[in-house]
Design a protein that fits this description.
It is a single chain. The chain is α+β, with helices and mostly antiparallel strands and 173 residues long. The protein has one domain: OB fold (Dihydrolipoamide Acetyltransferase, E2P) (Beta Barrel). 36% of the residues lie in helices and 25% in strands. It contains 5 helices and 7 strands. A hairpin with a 2-residue loop joins strand 2 and strand 3. The N and C termini lie far apart (60 Å). This is Thermonuclease family protein. It comes from Pedobacter petrophilus. It holds the Pfam family SNase.
């Protein structure tokens, strides 16, 4: 009997940080806009911020960047570009919603008042993610970046991240 109580207590202590993180996200992020410090860059369109001592993953709205973890060309460049724009800074986050991976989808502005989502497209480090965004401004930024051969648009045949993520057919010999 005593062992069961100890096991239950241990499990509660183990999962408590996860419960607190979810509660904090839901309670404190009811405001549409907030400020937080960028503490980690995962790739060109995903970062982690620290808000009230709680890490929150942010997925940049309107854009999709080359896949770093799947070795897509320009994946590392996109991660470095986002890092150069905001790592270690306090940024303003314009909350939209959560995605299925529990990342906060947002538009983010850095200390230079640059909108990171737009700047990544302007630098040629991202595509306008038309599947999830109908914003004509992002479409125009991509057209201009392509025309100027900025970043990944210098590549003869850039492959969109959503196509890069599709399973590759297996060759049978």
């Amino acid at each position: 009997m005593q062992m069961g109580k100890i096991t239950t207590l241990f499990l509660l202590l183990l999962i408590q940080p996860f419960l607190q993180k979810t509660e904090l996200q839901e309670l404190n992020l009811k405001n549409q806009t907030f400020s937080a410090k960028v503490v980690r860059i995962m790739d060109g369109d995903t970062m982690e911020v620290l808000y009230q001592k709680t890490p929150i993953k942010i997925r940049l709205a309107h854009i999709d960047c080359p896949e770093k973890r799947r070795s897509q060309p320009f994946g590392n460049n996109a991660k470095q570009a986002l890092s150069d724009l905001c790592f270690g800074q306090y940024v303003i986050i314009y909350r939209q919603k959560y995605d299925r991976y529990r990342r906060l989808i947002a538009v983010v502005k850095n200390q230079k008042k640059q909108i990171l989502n737009q700047e990544m497209i302007r630098q040629g480090m991202a595509w306008h993610y038309k599947k999830y965004s109908t914003d004509a401004g992002y479409a125009q930024l991509e057209i201009t970046a392509r025309k100027n051969k900025a970043g990944l648009w210098r590549d003869a045949n850039p492959i969109a991240p959503w196509d890069w993520r599709k399973p590759k057919p297996k060759l049978h010999v």
